[in-house]
Structures are given as structure tokens and as C-alpha cells.
Amino acid sequence: MRFSSSLVILGASVAYALPPLARRSSVNLLDSVLVFDAPAFQDHQNPANTLVQLQAYVSTRQFSVAPLLSGISSLLNKTLGLDIGSDIATASSRLELFATVGLSGKDVSFNVGGCGNAASLQSTASGGMAIQNISLGACGAAEANGTVDLTSLDSRDVTFRVFPSSADGFGVISDIDDTVKISHSLDTLLLAKATLIDTPVPVTGMPEVYASLAQSLNSPQFIYVSASPFQLYPFLRDFIDTTYSQSNGPIMLNNLTTTDLSSIIDFARADGVFEYKSAMIDRIQGMYPGKKFLAVGDSTQKDPETYGEAIRKYGDFIACAWIRLVDEANNTDARFAAAFEGVDPTKYKLYTDAEIPSLANIDVAGGSCS
Ligand SMILES: *[C@@H]1O[C@H](CO)[C@@H](O)[C@H](O)[C@H]1NC(C)=O
Ligand SMILES: *[C@@H]1O[C@H](CO)[C@@H](O)[C@H](O)[C@H]1NC(C)=O
Ligand SMILES: *[C@@H]1O[C@H](CO)[C@@H](O)[C@H](O)[C@H]1NC(C)=O
Ligand SMILES: *[C@@H]1O[C@H](CO)[C@@H](O)[C@H](O)[C@H]1NC(C)=O
Ligand SMILES: *[C@@H]1O[C@H](CO)[C@@H](O)[C@H](O)[C@H]1NC(C)=O
């Protein structure tokens, strides 16, 4: 409103003369908006109120994916002898968000079905991202759909899911790459291929194990925590949604603002995975301090170290840690002894692929971890 009147009085140049920090606006037709499926939790101050921890990314399409794509194509061709010619559409769509530029100062208004309050995420940060706790008023206990309010000229349908969960009971924190999805995290090129081209493949037996946990833990809050860049969200969400349909939940991903080829495909080796994952566990603990979580990961990156540290820090909040032993990873006794130093050995289980079906028989609800 202020903008349009100044434009009328002083002319269009005024808009460009305003300092960028003063700009604050809602999503318009030229913007793309992505709202991540979000966890909701009981407001500790006011138990009748529900809070949603909402993450949104607002961007503009700034450049073409073609340069990224050609770099990746020639790399894969040279090193794996892989011609991605026929997979170019898949690779382009998975790279799409890397070719966007985040917009700061954007407000995202929305409604969530079954909740009392219309709500708004206030002002995305530089980089276009924001994560905020937003009050929804009184909500039902079931999964609900949220809808972003767009202008009357904007016919797009921007929706997301909200996963509420009670203050007590169980949850499952799960890694994605090489825990529930075959990603070849230890091999940069195979990782690039699995990430950009291949139809994603689950770790055999894990969808069934998670479906079984959904029953035995009485609809636990599943939260997927991965160090993959958030730009891969549409791809990963689609995979979890279809392949792990009985154990759907929010997916927490890392911020990556670079469009540098090597960091796009080398995220699994990036430094700081331990710090990032530990921060996500802190975030989950902040929302659900009264729950108990089963933490599931693998031996490729830093899951043993992260979960060991979380047990030392939070005790029974992490009821059990399960670690998939991945061939070629550091699976030495010395590694696990260090990762789980000071942790009761009955609280964690290292498992091979052959043992996956038997995970469903473990009475986690009854206090067993192995
Ligand atoms: C892949 O490399 C071969 C030669 O090694 C070349 O003939 C072919 O055109 C390349 N394909 C692509 C898609 O770059
Ligand atoms: C991502 O960026 C947002 C906005 O700056 C910030 O609030 C959030 O904590 C960041 N997430 C991670 C995982 O660093
Ligand atoms: C949410 O929307 C999907 C379709 O997008 C629909 O199938 C589902 O039933 C909706 N869920 C609720 C709780 O309204
Ligand atoms: C959201 O609320 C939780 C629980 O009170 C708290 O731990 C966390 O710090 C809050 N996050 C933000 C971004 O305010
Ligand atoms: C495996 O991890 C242990 C403990 O961190 C370390 O001492 C050892 O050097 C590692 N081995 C390899 C092959 O990386």
C-alpha cells in the first residue's frame, strides 16, 4: 500500500531508491514459495495452543540450470562413462532449486486445516529462508494440510502438511542417505548419480521396519534429518512420501546457498555434519522434551558420533540408537567405542543388512533397543 502511493506520487524510481532492508512484502506472482512439511507441537506456555515450526523458502528464478547441468554431465561422462543425455529432464528437475535466488523480507501467510488461527511467517532472512515457531491456536490431533494465502490474481496452489504430535509418547529421528535410501554417500560420483539421475531405491526392508514402528510405537512422530541441501527437498519428500508412506514426517535439511558444483554433489562429506545434526536434535528436543526418540542412522557419516553425544546430553530422550553398518565405512570397534563412550551398551545397536527384517521384532516401546 505504501509502495503504490509513493509510486503514484513520486514515480517508479523511488522504489529502486529505497534501501533494500526497508523492503518487506508478501509473496507475489513473480516469487516462488516452498513451504516444508512441518512438525507441530504443544505450546509449553499454553498447552491448549499448538505451535508449528514452519520453514519456508521464497525465491525468484534467477538463472538457468544449464551451466550446472553441463558441468555435472561432463563430470559424470568423464569419470563414470555415463551419458546423462536421456536423463537430462530428471537431472534438470532435481537441480531446479539450485538455480533460484532467495528473497529476503518476504512474509508468507497461511491457514492450516482444523486449526483456529490464520497465521503468518514474518520476513524471510537473507538467503530467502526462514524457520519460525508460529501459533495456530487450537488444532486437531491429526495430520493437516496448510495452504499459503496468495493474491487474488495468483492461481497457484501452494500447500504443505503439518504433522502434530503429543507432548509425550515416541518419535523416530531418521537419517536419509544410506539409512533409508541407497545413496552411496562414500563415493562422490555414485552419490551424484543416485542424487541427480537414478530413481531412488530404499534400503531393502526399511520401509517395512518403519511401517512396523508406526504401529508398535503408536504413531510416533517420524522426523527425517539429513545433511543434504534443502534444494533436494522436492526429490526427497517425494521419495519418503511414496516409499515410506506409513512413516511420513517432516524432513529437515541443511542450508546451502552456494551453486558451486562440487558442494552440490559433495554434501555428504561436508564438514560440519556432526554440528548440523546435533543442532537439529536440539531443535527436536526443544519441541518435544517429553518424548522419547529412537534415532536411526548409518556408519557412513557422523550418525554414531551424533547420536552418542545426544544420549550423553539428553539421556532417555534418545531411547535407542540404531546404526546401519555400511560396507566401506569405518566400522571398527574403536570408532563405535569412541562414538558411544559412556553410553550404556544396551542403548544402541549396530546392524547389518541381513538383520534389517529382525529390527521390527525389537520391543522399543517396552524399553529394548536390540
Ligand atoms: C561422453 O564422452 C564421450 C567420449 O568420451 C563423447 O563421445 C560423448 O559425446 C560424451 N557425451 C556427453 C553427453 O558429453
Ligand atoms: C537456515 O537459515 C535460516 C534463516 O537464516 C535459519 O533460521 C536456520 O537456522 C538455518 N538452518 C540451518 C540448519 O542452519
Ligand atoms: C490433504 O491434501 C491431500 C491432497 O493434496 C488429500 O489427499 C488429503 O486428504 C488432505 N488431508 C487432509 C487432512 O485434509
Ligand atoms: C521454537 O520453540 C521451541 C520450543 O519452545 C524452542 O526450543 C525453539 O528455540 C523455538 N525456535 C525458535 C526459532 O524460536
Ligand atoms: C576409524 O575411526 C577410529 C575412531 O575415530 C579412528 O581412530 C580410525 O583411525 C578410523 N579408521 C579409519 C580407517 O578411518
UniProtKB/TrEMBL annotation:
Q: Name one Pfam family in it.
A: APP1_cat
Q: Which UniProt keywords apply?
A: Signal
- Signal as UniProt keyword: yes
Query: Which positions fall inside the Phosphatidate phosphatase APP1 catalytic domain?
Result: 170-324
Gene Ontology molecular functions:
phosphatidate phosphatase activity
One GO cellular component this record assigns the protein to is: actin cortical patch
Report the leader peptide range: 1-17
PANTHER family for this protein? FILAMENT ORGANIZATION PROTEIN APP1-LIKE, PUTATIVE (AFU_ORTHOLOGUE AFUA_1G06650)-RELATED (PTHR28208:SF1), PHOSPHATIDATE PHOSPHATASE APP1 (PTHR28208)
| Record-given protein name | Phosphatidate phosphatase APP1 catalytic domain-containing protein
Q: Which organism is it from?
A: Roridomyces roridus
What lineage does the source organism belong to?
Eukaryota, Fungi, Dikarya, Basidiomycota, Agaricomycotina
